[in-house]
Amino acid sequence: MHCPFCRHPDSRVVDTRSSDDGLSIRRRRQCPKCDRRFTTTESASLLVVKRSGVVEPFSRDKVIEGVKKACQGRPVTDADLATVAQSVEEAIRATGVSQIDANDIGLAVLPPLRELDEVAYLRFASVYQAFESLEDFESAIEGLRRDHETQGAAE
Ligand SMILES: [Zn+2]
């Protein structure tokens, strides 16, 4: 989101509000370069279809709630959780869909959570991907190990 005053390419969200009809989101943003504030209005047409068939607007807070449980006892801050939720929303919006299954949100959580904390990632994955046995954990851990080795080799 470019600053409309100095065209700085980045901005910080200082306040987020849903409109009364829930169809748009107004964000107060502040430019880190010139410190001026401006407001953007974004479409809130990202809907979540729950298993029960109920449709509700996408909520970062709910993503955070879901991820928080997996992060218990881990060195993860509220800011980290907010970053994960933001990545999830951006990843979903980038696909251009206006509606997503609640279960697919869980899958969108996995990549940023994996970046953040691998133990929390395994906990979360075990729930969302319905791990049923030790083998499921072993193959997920094996996947992490393989990536470590590839990363190590690339350095
Ligand atoms: Zn600016």
Number of structural units classed as domains: 2
Class derived from helix and strand content = alpha+beta
Described by the principal axes of the CA atoms, the overall outline is globular
Strand content: 15-25%
Helix content: 40-55%
Q: Unreliable segments (pLDDT under 50, ≥5 consecutive)?
A: none
- How far is the N terminus from the C terminus? 33 Å
Could you report the average pLDDT, rounded to the nearest whole number? 87
Give the beta-strand count. Answer: 6
Q: Could you tell me the radius of gyration in angstroms?
A: 18 Å
Helices and strands, in order, run as: EEEEEHHEHHH
Number of helices: 5
Describe what you observe in this structure.
Its cofactor is Zn(2+). This protein is an alpha+beta fold. It folds into 2 domains: 12-42, no CATH class; 47-153, no CATH class. It is built from 5 helices and 6 strands, in the order βββββααβααα. The strands form 2 sheets. It has a 3-stranded antiparallel beta sheet with strand order 1-2-3, with no helix packed on it. α1 (60-70) packs across α2. The longest helix is centred in the last third of the chain and has 21 residues, at 134-154. It starts with 11 loop residues before the first strand and ends with a helix. 15% of the residues are buried. The model has no long low-confidence stretch (mean pLDDT 87).
